[in-house]
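Kindly inspect the following:
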Amino acid sequence: MTERLKKTADKNSFAPTPPMGWNSYDYYDTTVNEAQVKANADYMAEHLKEFGWEYVVVDIEWYSNDAGTLRDRYQYIPFGDVEMDAYGRFLPAPARFPSSAGGKGFGPLADYVHGLGLKFGIHIMRGIPRKAAHEACPVLGAQEKADRIADPSSICIWNPDMYGVRNTPDGQAYYDSVFSLYAQWGVDFVKCDDICDSRLYRTEPFLGWEETRMIHRAIEKCGRPIVLSLSPGPAHIDRAWEYCRYANMWRITDDFWDEWELLKGMFVRCEMWQDHVRAGCFPDCDMLPLGKLGKGFGNEWETRFSREEQKTMMTLWCMFRSPLMIGAELTLLDDWTLSLLTNRDILALMKESCKGTQILRTEDLAVWKNKDEAAGRLCVALFNLSDEEQTVSVDIEKLGEDALISEDTVLFELWEQKETTVVSGRIEAGIPAHGVKVYRAE
């Protein structure tokens, strides 16, 4: 095996299937605290872990002491009050994360999550804190200080916290020091923002491609397997090889929320990326906006997706084999939403031996298949993308799976748990508007 292939195999060995977990952003925005994270972790351990859900991810601005205090004016307060160590590395805000006091960082919270049999993750922004540059902080392992490592011409257009990091040995030393700290804390997952979609920047300088490689190198050096997730999207299909080489997940959409047109548009994106899904390399459809959302935005609401749309979303994400990150406040989930997230037959589509393929897509419908090579099992999803109930069908010959499905094959529908059969060489069903039927050939 060549050294390049060996490194890719090593990177993928700790993420053979799409990561599944909870992320604080959709409900808490920038304001989540330690007690809330623990409550969601407790819920996951009790109700979701046995179904494969395992990551607990603290999203954006966990280092902000004043996050959310000016939410009517700013999502991210310009030059706000942030917590940082002497080497220019962000630390958790101690008022929000009291176990971090005394330089412990996220170590105690990660220990708590690990004690539940789960994994711990955090969000970061690309770059080095502006505060570190303005104060010319020393950088661990570097000759230059933060003001020389930072590139003030490379800035995020929507978050004011960071400057880009110059692609120099001292710039690499900064990232090495950051991920060494995360490894000490016990971090298992890092969602890095302002790094995936360079075309957000148009003519502005952007170091995202270089900084992705620098972060990848820092993870290799830190001595701990850390899943790397890149945001925001949409990612660029012409750089698919680069995402796969240096990251485990990359967003194929901008922030995804509970609007039907956004969900319908994901069928186009999944069609584009379906051939780039493999062990350790997962195009990411973004979070699942289910249940209660938006408290940190000042406007808590129940997901605007209908139940049919929620099943469609879960089915597409699983057929395609996207990572699954729940955006809801877990402790407020109702029984129906919990059943949606714990359907073993649907979640089985995520296995390493499975591959999803789109067979057909029009303005009004889509058909996907998901083949489990190890089990020799085929699942077929019929999606009604129209605004009216309609019959959706696919000729079994179009599936190209003669050994697995034929005339009179018994079919088991995975949401309703009912049997039917192939009739006249077709799989066919009446489906509500924006709904789905998923059949497993028995």
